[in-house]
Amino acid sequence: SSDQKRQIERIKQLLIERDATLVAHYYTDDVLQSLAEATGGCVADSLEMARFGSKSPSSTLVVAGVRFMGETAKMLSPEKRILMPTLEATCSLDIGCPAAEFSAFCDAHPDRTVVVYANTSAEVKARADWVVTSAIALDVVAHLHEKGEKVLWAPDKHLGRYVAEQTGADMLMWDGACIVHEEFKAKGILDIKRVYPDAAVLVHPESPQSVVDLADATGSTSQLINAAKALPHDTLIVATDRGIFYKMQQAVPEKLLVEAPTGGNGATCRSCAHCPWMAMNALDNLEQCLKEGLGEVTVDEAVRVKALVGLDRMLAFKS
Ligand code: 13P
Ligand code: SF4
């Protein structure tokens, strides 16, 4: 609409006035992703968001995504002002891994190398030897396993199980899950495969094992977009948040992309895979945060210094 166009123009102007760069995750609204691209920001998976943010010359970064992405940006660039359209956007993995309980779990297993998924609070990262995202988890854990290290993994049990299976590493697991990906079921994938028998299946590894087992490609959001390009199939069934369809369809305009249904056993829901916290990011709160400087992310300096150990290892890691 013309109202929306005017709002987008205002936001573009504010980005310039505030020396701000917009970084958006693939799961945010299409309009935010296209705005990030149009203004010299980036649309990326969580690893690339961290890399991009730490290299950006702007004095302010606006992170459209969920809380841990803003905190990671702040910890990597403490001199920058990090804003988020809303600080309420969390993640079920973060919620399910409170720092005090996690710390006690680590204390009980001092012989293990602590590897935490990026989808955690700064305090949880402060207990970690390594931070990883889904794009790099396999390579890091394979490396630790080769060195003979046993791993304490948190919080995503599905990603952890997948990494353990692929690498053969000894991994003690926290019991967390993503509420979006956990809803994909093998039954639902098999049902949709009957409709599109020649399709390839793309799966984010936060999904349950039975779903990963049906995948032709498994990986982070960026890795799934690359797989969409690389696979020879004309039809792709995609088991991850539906926000990814915006960039994935741009990458493969000639292919048919099909949303994997969530549910199974009769309770099949189409177009349901969408993170409620990613969905909190919108043009209105983006404009507001730029205008008023609202939604500024802060991280305690002592926590930051500890969390940086694992974050720096992640960014320096070359497989
Ligand atoms: P990616 O690292 O694949 O972008 O995933 C982040 C996330 O929150 C997935 O649900
Ligand atoms: Fe967390 Fe899942 Fe949302 Fe990603 S999609 S932010 S893992 S709840």
Describe what is shown at a glance.
The protein has 319 residues and is α/β, with parallel strands linked by helices.
Question: What is the level 1 CATH name of the largest domain?
Answer: Alpha Beta
Stretches with pLDDT under 50, minimum 5 residues: none
Q: What is the CA-based Rg, rounded?
A: 19 Å
Please state the average pLDDT score.
Answer: 96
Instruction: Give the spatial strand order of the biggest sheet.
Output: 2-1-3-4
Tell me the β content.
5-15%
Number of spatially distinct domains: 3
The separation of the N and C termini measures: 46 Å
Protein name: Quinolinate synthase
GO molecular function: transferase activity
Pathway: Cofactor biosynthesis; NAD(+) biosynthesis; quinolinate from iminoaspartate: step 1/1
Enzyme class: transferase
Written description of the protein model:
The chain has helices at 2-17, 30-38, 46-55, 67-76, 92-95, 99-107, 122-125, 137-146, 157-167, 186-195, 209-212, 221-230, 245-251, 283-292, 301-316, and strands at residues 20-25, 42-44, 60-64, 81-83, 113-117, 130-132, 151-154, 171-173, 200-203, 217-218, 235-239, 256-259. With 319 residues, it is an alpha/beta fold. Strand 3, helix 4 and strand 4 form a beta-alpha-beta unit. The protein is globular, with a radius of gyration of 19 Å. It folds into three domains: 2-89 and 278-298, 3-Layer(aba) Sandwich (Rossmann fold), CATH 3.40.50.10800; 93-177, Rossmann fold; 181-259, Rossmann fold, CATH 3.40.50.10800. The chain has 15 helices and twelve strands. The protein is 44% helix and 15% strand. The model has no long low-confidence stretch (mean pLDDT 96). Strands 2-1-3-4 form a four-stranded parallel β-sheet, sandwiched between helices. Strands 6-5-7-8 form a four-stranded parallel β-sheet. The chain binds 1,3-dihydroxyacetonephosphate and iron/sulfur cluster. Iron/sulfur cluster binds next to helix 5. Its EC number is 2.5.1.72.
